[in-house]
Amino acid sequence: MSTTRTLFICKATCWNCKKEFKAAYVKLTWKEKQGNISPGHFTKDEKALVAENGVIIKPMVYPNGDVYTANICPHCNKPYSNNRIDDFVSHEEKEIITLNQTSKRTFLNKLFEYAGTIGNLECDRGNFKGIYIIVRPEKMHDIQLIPTSNAGKFKGKDPTVKIEKLKQKLSVEADILYLGKSEDSVEKRMHQHIEFWNGKSIAAWGGRSIAQIKNFEDLEVWYLPCNNPKEMETALLREFEGQYKQLPLANWRH
Q: Between the CA of residue 130 and those of 66, 119, 162, 176, 199, what are the distances in Å?
């Protein structure tokens, strides 16, 4: 079993001013064991992610001159001792990202940016043209399908795909469930899809099968900026098809 690192943003209470603030730690899992990693051992990517999410970490100096890195309370600028990490590891505010899930961050040798979930899409993450993918999260071990789609009936067309066809495509062990493109803004396009999947009759027919996944709001959204979305989409779908002998669940042509 490989080693995984998962970054968490948590709620902590400052020992000095007693105010609540955001702190971060990494959970390391290997074989059947787990351990916690303090900010001094964060990777470059982990440090960037905590900064983006409002966590302050910085080097501090012990009285004997030794240097350590800790979470900092923004209200009084006091460090939160790394020895206190165990006090809040069971009170996660939200899991930010599992950094080494190569099937998600790196898909077909392209580095994608995490943009949240369909039900909680992060703002200002995709103001560029490019590719977007819908990904099954680790916690969704089994995908449950509904027989009739609740998506919008654009131009009167029923968006429902026969459940037998969807089950056949689900037989492939692939986390990528849909891949699309936008020549304008991937964020804008995703919002159009989401409105369509939630019943609005708008022109977002591609990926309609996502709406037949129970709790599709929990699926992850990832973006890839590029200058030639149409060519990139075609190339990635062909690579996917070459690897899995079919297109992703909600893609029906390329």
A: 46, 21, 30, 16, 25
> In this structure, are residues 93 and 20 in contact, taking their beta carbons and an 8 Å threshold?
no
Residue with tokens 């996502």: 210
Q: Where are the alpha helices (DSSP H) in 40-173?
A: 44-52, 85-88, 102-105, 163-170
Nearest CA among 209, 236, 210 for reference residue 131: 236
Residue 1 has pLDDT above 60, yes or no: no
Environment class of 225 (CB within 10 Å of its CB; exposed 0-12, middle 13-18, buried 19+): middle
> What is this structure's pTM?
0.61
Cβ neighbours, 10 Å, residue 12: 22
Query: Does residue 97 carry a pLDDT above 50?
Result: no
The proportion of the chain whose per-residue pLDDT surpasses 90, expressed as a percent, equals: 43
Residues 182 and 130 sit within 8 Å (Cβ to Cβ) = yes
- Running DSSP on this structure, what letter comes out for residue 190? H
Query: Any idea how long the chain is?
Result: 254
**Mean of the per-residue pLDDT values for the chain?**
85
What are 183's two structure tokens?
A: 């020549």
Residues pairing with 107 in the sheet: 110
- pLDDT value for 100: 38
